[in-house]
């Protein structure tokens, strides 16, 4: 067992994301992860250093520290804890200062928070858009949508729309393909005027069955025949109408959203 | 103008997050940001290198490249583009190999996607939980909730719940405090049995007025008197009942979620 600390003066999401990406390159090792967020006072930095020291002693080997710590002073405290530090700021800031021929501000907490009001309100607007235009609740705002996802029930439309809103500020609506839509391979009326905004989600029928079975066990809705039929007809509709689509069976929400963004050449709003 | 490229063999979210954090340390410089995601073939890497070359020529100075590129081969292509590369993988992987006394796998795409099925389904469950238990829609699942956010209308409950679900897999419900709840400083009946799961959101009344005014202009709901009254009474209720609360006026959704997580000592589910 080797303890890994993610330490940041803010949420620690960036330190965690990059740190975890690096750790996946060592699947043979069993890591214990500890996230210490908002380490923004000397006292908190001292406490963090103490925790690192104790973990290193317990493990019998130095803990790893992934940090995005802007303050030199607090970073030194972490460095002297007995752990091995990978500081994502320190590594790059001095190289960047040289290349950009200027000093960095060394201010904490700049990447989020105050001063971001437009981004913040904008993203709340995007989330509200996703919620108000989820699951075909209404189809009257498609003029305003950046993208309209469509696919059968449980193909991943809602979480993908919410992720597009939260991460990129995209206005994403979604429209579920139900039995009556799937009787023909023509686009449903509500979608006809918005062909250039459509993106299809498809899914492996067995995976779909598994997901639906959790919701409504042993129902017709969750039967493999129904799942196969719906997926086949939905894909026929996508192909027939030149709607691009993605198979969501084996990829994460982040990746579905990222690929859709890339393929449809959408820019983040915020 | 200086062009900055974020390049990854996956979504590029990590490269963007860390790269942007670093760029905020240089507020005096005007950066143009380009995100190139899913650079996972030699051809795509060559195209990326060409774009970097052209941007550097147009700007009259070398573009910056923030990259999380696992493949050495593709990284070399980027290095030879004339841009200056900050590769978050290369910098750390060899140091980690030495410390961990083992080889890294150097496989692309490990941080997301296939193999993460439990995490993926888990987070979808969390998102569904947030959606089904949003805005007091129902109060019957509070037994299952990890946390229940409460506050006046438009204090940020829904986006915070969704972010807790998406980022951390937390089961987060939310309950809106309406006029009749605020007639007294006692907890609403629906919340009484769950005091240890409650977290309050508060907000500056002027900011609340601005937000509400966009929704329902010049309404009683958006009047400053109404906003002041609701916020004051909600805070009284939090204090009276020892419910911890956070002012959401000037911080991002990530930070609200991060601070709540830290204060309530909740662990991520996925």
Automatic annotation (TrEMBL), chains A, B:
Is Transport among this UniProt entry's keywords?
A: no
Q: Does the keyword Transmembrane helix apply?
A: no
Give the keywords, sorted: Kinase, Nucleotide-binding, Serine/threonine-protein kinase, Transferase
InterPro entries attached here? Kinase-pyrophosphorylase (IPR005177), PSRP (IPR026530)
Write out the catalysed reaction: [pyruvate, water dikinase]-phosphate + phosphate + H(+) = [pyruvate, water dikinase] + diphosphate; [pyruvate, water dikinase] + ADP = [pyruvate, water dikinase]-phosphate + AMP + H(+)
Family under the similarity heading:
Belongs to the pyruvate, phosphate/water dikinase regulatory protein family. PSRP subfamily.
Q: What does this protein do?
A: Bifunctional serine/threonine kinase and phosphorylase involved in the regulation of the phosphoenolpyruvate synthase (PEPS) by catalyzing its phosphorylation/dephosphorylation.
Q: What is this protein called?
A: Putative phosphoenolpyruvate synthase regulatory protein
Record the organism.
Candidatus Pseudothioglobus singularis PS1
